[in-house]
């Protein structure tokens, strides 16, 4: 595994090149919560690029081994964490399960799909961390099923303080391959954005809720 800074930069490069991440400080996106955001991230696009998909798989696998050691199960967060989780589980030779956003309304009413066991040590895989709420919901579902959740890994984080606070409150460690801070610095250095845009993007990170009122 290459060093953390190099991975952050390489993943940022990939995500910008294939437009999995779009930066539009002058024409922000609107999140479901109503927050105006200068960034849009869809890491599912990486699955269409074999070399990038492989790089992400290999480095998520290495990150899990370095940060969490031996684990017994990889669990993906539905839906975007499922394919990444399957790839990593296959790479590590581990069982896989996934956690739904809500329990099925028919059949068994399952919230977790796949076999999990009492005391099983699990790492959760997510594609993206914004506030962390959906990720922590999956962590808590696995804990309720008796699993020992070692932590969570993801491709990318927005570096929002709310996410850090939410994971701390849930007593869950998390790590990502890249993040918003690394991304905007790379984008500025390689002319994806202007210097003025960089300052706007930094202000959003510091106060997303009030950024649109700047």
**DSSP helical segment count:** 8
Largest sheet: 6 strands, mixed
The best one-word shape is globular
Report the helical percentage.
40-55%
Number of strands: 10
Question: Per CATH, what is the topology?
Answer: Rossmann fold
- Rg for CA atoms: 17 Å
Structural class: alpha/beta
What is the correct CATH architecture?
3-Layer(aba) Sandwich
The H/E string reads HEEEEHEHEEEHEHEHHH
Count of structural domains: 1
- Please give the order of strands in the largest beta sheet: 7-6-5-8-9-10
Kindly report the average pLDDT value: 93
Strand % is 15-25%
What top-tier CATH class fits best? Answer: Alpha Beta
> What ranges have pLDDT less than 50 throughout 5 or more consecutive residues?
none
Cofactor: Mg(2+)
Pathway: Pyrimidine metabolism; UMP biosynthesis via de novo pathway; UMP from orotate: step 1/2
Enzyme class: transferase
Domain Phosphoribosyltransferase: 56-174
What does this structure look like?
This protein has 214 residues and is α/β, with parallel strands linked by helices. It has a single domain (4-206), classed as Rossmann fold, CATH 3.40.50.2020. Helix content is 43%, strand content 21%. It contains eight helices and ten strands. The chain has a six-stranded mixed β-sheet, with helices on both faces. The longest helix is centred in the N-terminal third of the chain and has 19 residues, at 50-68. It is globular. The chain starts with a helix and ends with a helix. 36% of the residues are buried. Pathway: Pyrimidine metabolism; UMP biosynthesis via de novo pathway; UMP from orotate: step 1/2. 5-phospho-alpha-D-ribose 1-diphosphate binds at residues 100, 104, 106, 126-134. Pfam families: Pribosyltran (PF00156). It is an enzyme of class 2 (transferase). Its EC number is 2.4.2.10.
